[in-house]
Fold this sequence. Notes:
By secondary structure, the protein is an alpha+beta fold. The protein has two domains: about 10-85, Fumarylacetoacetase, N-terminal domain (SH3 type barrels); about 95-375, Fumarylacetoacetate hydrolase, domain 2 (Alpha-Beta Complex). It has helices at about 50, 55-70, 100-110, 190-195, 205-210, 290-295, 325-330, and strands spanning about 10-15, 25-30, 30-35, 75-80, 85, 95, 125-130, 135, 140-145, 145-150, 160, 165, 170-175, 195-200, 205, 225-230, 235, 240-245, 260-265, 265-270, 275-280, 310, 350-355, 360-375. The strands form six sheets. Strands 6, 7, 8, 13, 14, 16, 17 and 22 form an eight-stranded mixed β-sheet that branches. Strand 1 and strand 2 (about 25-30) form a beta hairpin. The longest helix has 16 residues, at about 55-70. The protein binds calcium ion. Calcium ion binds near residues 95, 312 and 313.
Amino acid sequence: MSDGFGLDHLPYGVFSTQGSAPRVGVRYADTVVDVATVRPELDRPRLNDFMGLGPAAWAETHGRIAELVDSDALPAYPLDDVALHLPFTVGDYVDFYASLDHASNVGRIFRPDQEPLLPNWRHLPVGYHGRGGTVVVSGTPVVRPCGQRKAPTEEAPAYGPSRRLDIEAELGFVVGVGSELGARIGVDEFEQHVFGVVGVNDWSARDIQAWEYVPLGPFLGKSFATSVSAWVTPLAALASARTHVPAQDPAPLPYLAGSDRWALDVEVEVVLNGEVVSRPSYRTMYWSPAQMLAHLTVNGASTRTGDLFASGTISGPEPDTRGSFLELSWGGKEPFAGGHTFLEDGDEVVLRYSSPAPDGGRITLGDVVGRIEPARP
Ligand code: CA
């Protein structure tokens, strides 16, 4: 359990012990190290003030914390003795759709008579604005949403609990230093703005989504809950995970081109009730994180500390690398993992993430846990 949480990683979170106020800590092995005394911006119940300081302060602080942790100079608590909180106040939340295999699979399932990819997909990172206020920390129960749903075979819509509740295994990127209204973040300026990476489960009610999404896109089928990991891995800790996106054809427009279309080598495991049911890899994503941020701001939309943008479902070309139950069960037609199609009440899903570390080992990103509770009457 302690593997992947060494001195080269030290992801940030917000924790409290019984009777104490929430403050910033770092994960080291199976402990949470209290770093509130290291600088004033860390003695806060959220990471935002620290994230807003920028890359020079992030690097300098990581170095100081690593030294202090290495010499046991800071208080540390066993993970089991602390409560973990949402690590940052979420500003705006944007969700992309950057996996070619996921977009192709969903196209085949939702629009079987048409080309799987819509004409814009290879020209821009498709996305939508989600709901920042319903982003919750890992471990928060997910109540089955109710809403309007209408299967193609049904005459009229009906109201009730979703019958096709799903996961989406994603990676999320957290903005540290924002940008002004009217300004753009260039594709080579990513590291000046983005603080770190979180695991994301973008819970999705497929029956609500399928009925409501035309023509304006996802709405209530997505906004009831989005889970993020309790730990934010600093971007710098993923230096050894840098790789390149696949060949992009047609060539992207100049504002999406950049000097280095880097991707991240992050392996994901989707665990359902204790069983690994899929192993997506972030390496296969078509659009790079920097291209997503450049596109998100190309119209001059401002960004703020705490803004979150997620990659979209991570799915690879093989059936056992699909990052949603929609794809794993092929629209509910092909049960998997002992008869599963969509989520049942009581199901627990854990998303685990790992990537290469500088010393040749691996670092473990914070996992994302959620258990489904029955719909409220
Ligand atoms: Ca999504």
